[in-house]
Specification:
This is Single-stranded DNA-binding replication protein A (RPA), large (70 kD) subunit or related ssDNA-binding protein. The protein is mainly beta and 475 residues long. It is 10% helix and 41% strand. The strands form four sheets. A five-stranded mixed beta barrel has the order 1-3-4-6-5. The longest helix is centred in the N-terminal third of the chain and has 14 residues. The C terminus is likely disordered.
């Protein structure tokens, strides 16, 4: 083979051998004999390959030009517009396309748009696209310079545009995702720059690939209060944005969140409690070992807040979790299995670490032993370890083969002492062994090494004693 054929054989670009030779000959002529055929061939090969991207997820708005493969998922309507100084109207048609990594809107102009409107392009066609990317109103857009069908290429994408949580990428629009509602929040209002009032609410959505926070705007915000945790839903025509380094799925006027009948599996993956560190944001899960009563407090602005502390244990350790705001109302008690997403690890009582679950966190009470295999959650930003644990790791703590409760969770050991480690806040009504604390609802016996005084308002940690005493019997 000659020099041109050798370079072409190593070229990974959508151009025929004849087109490549013609381009090389033109380059030699342009350079006035300063480059031979081999040099010109290498220059042309570089020009052809430098804008090639492997996937839609690699496209960025700042690129001058890109070349990529994409599968047409839907075709919009032809629109006309007036051009300044031109008697003939311009034409544009938007086409939604996707590959296995994401979605993109393709804008075709004038004659290309007319051809598409005449039916020369169909949903399901795979295109080789060359164009200029930009950040459009609803996400990534590519203004198409050239697009040709490739009948031999295969892209595994459903034509309905449905994807899973793990496949979402920044800038996607017209996204359809099915999942299960993990957590919801109340509607909040805010003032826009034009003086109008806006409304926003959030819910957390999970599927078998992961989870994502969904932001609902204005009229769509009410869905967060209408849907209950555990409801299977489909988000229709959402768009992906980034907030504080994490992706969010947004739903505006064009979108919807619809309840569906499908069964959807959500298998949370967790960071080991024993490996969390200060200032991390982690996903943790475990069995609730103790649950304090809800406490009310006054904020600096005069409003009233609420918090409830629970202690969660997995096979690597245990940690106190502070549930703030609406999360303090979650029906949660000893023996329940819970998953807490995006909890912030902070300094806690007596310099112990504690997890704070507030706005932006999700708290999910799991049913029927829902669990995950041992793995670390890749997007949590939390502790990473080869011993990262899923919720199956403490499945044996939830019960026995005969359906009875294990010791330490609502049962008595043979020596009359429960194995449950608790933290209780209240008034000391008896000192000694055990200490007895009245939390306002019941009196609780705690075996502890802590020094307390009669009548003192304290938070006591220790081992719950199975025997409970009526406060009236103490006086």
């Amino acid at each position: 083979m000659g020099a041109i054929e050798d370079v072409y054989a190593d070229l990974e670009a959508d151009v025929s051998g004849e087109e490549f030779r013609e381009a090389v000959e033109q380059k030699v002529e342009q350079m006035g004999g300063l480059a031979d055929e081999e040099t010109a061939a290498m220059l042309i090969a570089h020009e052809l390959s430098e804008n090639e991207v492997n996937a839609i997820a690699d496209i960025e708005p700042g690129m001058d030009e890109v070349k990529f493969l994409a599968k047409v998922t839907s075709i919009g309507e032809l629109r006309t517009f007036e051009r300044d100084g031109d008697d003939e109207d311009g034409r544009v048609i938007n086409v939604e396309a996707a590959d296995e990594t994401g979605q993109v809107r393709l804008s075709f102009w004038d004659e290309q748009a007319r051809s598409i409107d005449d039916g020369e392009l169909q949903a399901g066609d795979v295109l080789r696209v060359k164009g200029r990317p930009k950040d459009g109103y609803s996400g990534l857009e590519v203004s198409v310079d050239k697009a040709e069908p490739d009948e031999d290429a295969e892209i595994e994408v459903d034509l309905d545009g449905r994807t899973d949580v793990d496949s979402l990428s920044m800038g996607q629009s017209d996204v359809n995702v099915r999942g299960i509602v993990l957590d919801t929040e109340s509607v909040r209002t805010f003032d826009r720059d034009d003086g109008s009032e806006g409304r926003v609410a959030n819910l957390t959505l999970g599927d078998e690939s992961g989870r994502i926070r969904v932001t609902l705007w204005d009229d769509r915000a009410d869905r967060a209060e209408e849907l209950e945790a555990g409801t299977p839903v489909e988000v229709v025509d959402g768009y992906v944005r980034e907030r504080d380094g994490s992706l969010e799925l947004h739903v505006g006027d064009r979108g919807a969140v619809e309840a569906i009948d499908d069964e959807i599996d959500f298998s949370p993956e967790t960071d080991p409690i024993g490996g969390v560190e200060l200032d991390q944001t982690v996903d943790i899960g475990g069995v609730v070992r103790s649950a304090d009563p809800k406490r009310m407090f006054d904020r600096d602005d005069g409003s009233e807040g609420q918090v409830r502390n629970v202690r969660i244990q997995d096979d690597t350790g245990d940690i106190r979790v502070a549930l703030w705001g609406e999360k303090a109302d979650i029906d949660l008690g000893p023996g329940d299995e819970v998953f807490v997403a995006d909890a912030e690890i902070q300094d806690g009582w007596q310099d112990d670490l504690e997890a704070s679950a507030g706005w932006g966190s999700a708290v999910v009470v799991l049913e029927d032993g829902s669990g995950a295999g041992a793995a670390s959650n890749g997007d949590s930003g939390g502790a990473s370890s080869e011993s990262s644990t899923g919720l199956d790791a403490f499945a044996d703590d939830r019960g026995t083969d005969d359906g009875s409760e294990p010791a330490g969770v609502g049962s008595d050991d043979s020596d009359g002492t429960g194995g449950e480690q608790i933290e209780v806040t209240g008034t000391v009504v008896q000192t000694g062994d055990p200490v007895i604390v009245d939390d306002g609802e019941e009196t609780i016996s705690v075996e502890t090494d802590e020094h307390v005084q009669l009548g003192q308002q304290v938070t006591v940690r220790g081992q719950r004693r199975a025997d409970r005493v009526d406060a009236e019997e103490l006086f």
